[in-house]
Amino acid sequence: MRSAIKTALAVIVVAAALVYYFHFQGQRASDFSLKNWDGRVVTMNDLRGSIVALTFSYSNCSARCPVVTVRLSSLDALMKAPEDVVYLHVSIDPEMDTPESMKKYFGLYKLDAVKDRRWLFVSGGRDELSKLWNFYGIKIEKVEEKALPEGYYLDYTPKLLIIDKKGMIRHEADFFFTDEDIVRKIGEIA
Questions:
Q1: Residue 20 confidence (pLDDT) above 60
Q2: Domain containing 97 — which CATH number?
Q3: Strand, coil or helix: what is 188?
Q4: Could you tell me the sign of the dihedral formed by the alpha carbons of 54, 90, 18, 73, in that order?
C-alpha cells in the first residue's frame, strides 16, 4: 500500500513539473510597450520576424543577471551572431533602471548595444511591467543588504523564454539551461 502511495505521489510530482515546464510553450508572448535604454519604444509586435531570447534583469544586479548576460553573449558568439536573434532584457527594477544604467550594464559585459541593436534592455512604468511579470510568473522580492553599494538586491524568478518569429513562446527555461539546448531550440525555429 505504501509503495502504491509513493508511486502515485511520484507520478503527481512529475506531472506537475511537466505542466510547469511546458506552461508557456505554444502561447502567444505577452505584448508590451516599453522604452529601450536608448529611448526608443519597443513592443513585442515590433519584434515579430525576429527570434527573441527574453529574460528579466536589472542594471544594478551583481549576481544572477551578469551570469545570464555573459551566457547569452557566449551563445550569440557560438551561433555567429545571427541577425534574426534579439536579446531582450526586461527590467524588474524600474525605479533604478535608468537609460544610463541600462546602457552601462551592457558595456560592463563588452556588449556594444549602440552598434549591435539586437541587445535590448527595456523598462517603463511599474504597472506595465507588472503585467509582464505576472504573465510570465516572475516573483520579485527586495532584500535589504547593507554590504552592497545599492543597499539591496532583488531575489526573483529566473527565466529565459525563446519566442519565435511569429511571437509564439517555443521554449522556457530557468537559468540552468545548457548552451546546446538553447542553440538547438533557436536552430529549430530559425
A1: no
A2: 3.40.30.10
A3: helix
A4: positive
